[in-house]
Amino acid sequence: MTSRLVVIPTRRAHSNHAEVARSIGVDIIAGRYAEGVRLPGDAELTAMFGVSRPVLRESVKTLVAKGLLTTKARVGTVVRERGAWNMFDADVLAWHLDAGIDRRFLNDLAEIRLAVEPRAAALAASRRSEADIAELNRSMERMRREASDSVGFADGDLALHLAVANASGNLFMRSIGNVIEAALRASFLLSAPVETQDRETVLLWHQRIVDAIASGDAEAATAAMTEVIHNGLRRHEDVSPSSGAAAAAVESGEQS
């Protein structure tokens, strides 16, 4: 089973079938039901969760739709390979936080960010409005005001990146940002720049993103965003479950 950096609890579901789907989904992601393994039968699962067969079947249908399970005649319900999971599904992302995010999750998140965010920054440099620039500046002000290992700092960081996506004017980039918002927030909490020098580096490069977008310099905006993502990825390498950042992430999740 993969080593988990930290568990970040999310909100509980509001219906029986959604809660059963969440519980099974978390177990799959955490590796308690491995890829290719058949789930227990209906009788065992209904007894385990204290629900009716229709509720269980609705839960399984939800997990099939999200790519975590498949149903096979004369075989039963089987866990699908990780590559089939819909990582742009908000529930699947939330269940990863419940299960405990690992380095693979953080690396995969950084790679999709590198594929999207630098281009979003370049587009923002050519399409930004005065309102967009004002929002970027407000986010920077919050980051400067908050302690580096605080939830407020991570929220300011998140707000800045979402503001860049919004300023890009591209609906798909906006949607990607909104979908992975919870994962980004967890990532920012875990890579919080605790040391003074790290904090200054983080603030410097985020300010360069804002300045480049405000001045319409697409090339500089691309370079600054790329450096920010790589810098965060480097800090992830130093994260352990006992770190202050991890503790802040857990505290934040409990408040969700």
Automatic annotation (TrEMBL):
InterPro entries: GntR_C, TF_FadR/GntR_C, Tscrpt_reg_HTH_GntR, WH-like_DNA-bd_sf, WH_DNA-bd_sf. Gene3D superfamilies: GntR ligand-binding domain-like, Winged helix-like DNA-binding domain superfamily/Winged helix DNA-binding domain. SMART domains: FCD (SM00895), HTH_GNTR (SM00345). The keyword Transcription applies. Pfam families: FCD, GntR. GO terms for molecular function: DNA binding; DNA-binding transcription factor activity. Residues 14-82 form the HTH gntR-type domain. SUPFAM superfamilies: GntR ligand-binding domain-like (SSF48008), Winged helix' DNA-binding domain (SSF46785). Keywords: DNA-binding, Transcription, Transcription regulation. Residues 236-256 are annotated as: Disordered. CDD domains: WHTH_GntR. The keyword DNA-binding applies. Residues 240-256 have a biased composition (Low complexity). This is FadR family transcriptional regulator.
